[in-house]
Amino acid sequence: MSLWTILPVKPFGEGKSRLAGHLSPDRRRTLNRDLLAHTLGAVRLAHVKGEIVVVSRDKEALEAAARTGSHALIEEPPEPRLSRNAVQPHAISPELQLNAALTQATRYAVARGATKVLVLPTDIPNLTAEDVRAVASPCGAGPQIIIAPSRDGGTNALFLQPAQAIPFAFGRGSFARHQRLAEAAGIPVRVVASASLLFDIDLPEDYENVVRAC
Question: Which residue in 20, 75, 183, 184 has its CB near the most CB atoms, within 10 A?
Fold first, then answer.
């Protein structure tokens, strides 16, 4: 069975926007670049058999992926949504953009033989190879989902077997949404929680905690 690990990456100049008042644009770009490198390194060190695909609109991120032997997938813009009686399409929310990118990457992987996927955001600074193995270790070949929650009720890792078991629902409160989608599909869920998987960088205090720990 073929595992593909999907890393969605915002353009380095756009990621971690809530740190904009705390870090200069150059420092934010460096942070996002370092977080991608750390995540790629953790996945490589985990030695889980399979492929890695980075999906992004950022040329530098895609070049970094290619240098490590990963697949570099140019993110396609999601279709704009028109509500009834609307003259102009609604702006695409970050959550919709992320979930569309993950759907695109999963289709890409499935077309190349993927039977299961692991989604890992790249803003988990303490991610370890052990974490990757923990969320990429299904119990048998049957349908199943493994979720690692974030501190605020989001999803910091999502393993799907089969690869298109449920639609992606990342965003605020996504941990509960993914559980509900799994329940509706009749697929068992296992939750993996560890201190390193729970912690992601969202706010200035998160960044300061990481800096102090270095």
Answer: 75
Q: Which runs of E-coded beta strand occur in 76-187?
A: 116-119, 144-149, 155-161
**pTM value surpassing 0.85:** yes
Please say whether the beta carbons of 118 and 53 come within 8 A.
Answer: no
State the distance between the two ends of the chain, measured CA to CA, in whole angstroms: 38
What is the biggest distance separating any 2 CA atoms in the chain, rounded to whole angstroms? 53
Residue (of 101, 105, 96) closest to 171 by Cα position: 96
Q: Among 3.50.50.60, 3.90.190.20, 3.90.550.10, 3.40.1400.10, what is the CATH number of 3-77+94-213?
A: 3.90.550.10
pLDDT tens across 151-181, in order? 999 999 999 999 999 999 999 999 999 999 9
Report how far residue 194's alpha carbon sits from residue 179's, in angstroms, rounded to the nearest whole number: 18
Confidence of residue 22 (pLDDT cuts 50, 70, 90): confident
- Round to whole Å and give the CA distance between 22 and 205: 10
What one-character DSSP code corresponds to residue 92?
Answer: P
